[in-house]
Amino acid sequence: MTIRPIKTKKDYQLALARLEQIFDAQPGTKEGDELEVLGILIDTYEQAHHAIDYPDPIEAIKFRMEQLGYSQSDLAKVVGLKSRASEILNRKRKLSLEMIRQLHQALGIPTDVLIQAY
Fold this sequence. Notes:
By secondary structure, the protein is an all-alpha fold. It has two domains: 41 residues; 58 residues, 434 Repressor (Amino-terminal Domain). The protein is 64% helix and 0% strand. The chain has seven helices and no strands. Helix 1 runs antiparallel to helix 2.
């Protein structure tokens, strides 16, 4: 097991190739330990070089509503009024702190997503 930091794109490609070779390794074995450490190194490299931004808050709300089969009326029950739900979905009203809390609790959308500017 030769593990070293992933510093370049070539190192990253080699690490991915090795990960694929030992992907089915059993936990507690030499290769299982290598798999675990390699996964952490790859994740760290990807976070630094291929970070994915959070989605737009309104798009996240629409997506989650679709997943849950919610209508605008269902959203209105969360944020208070049907007109308010419409204004939010049409980007005419910004989310307040209280709305963010309600949406997080009712829809399970992370607050980190909802607090972004849009």
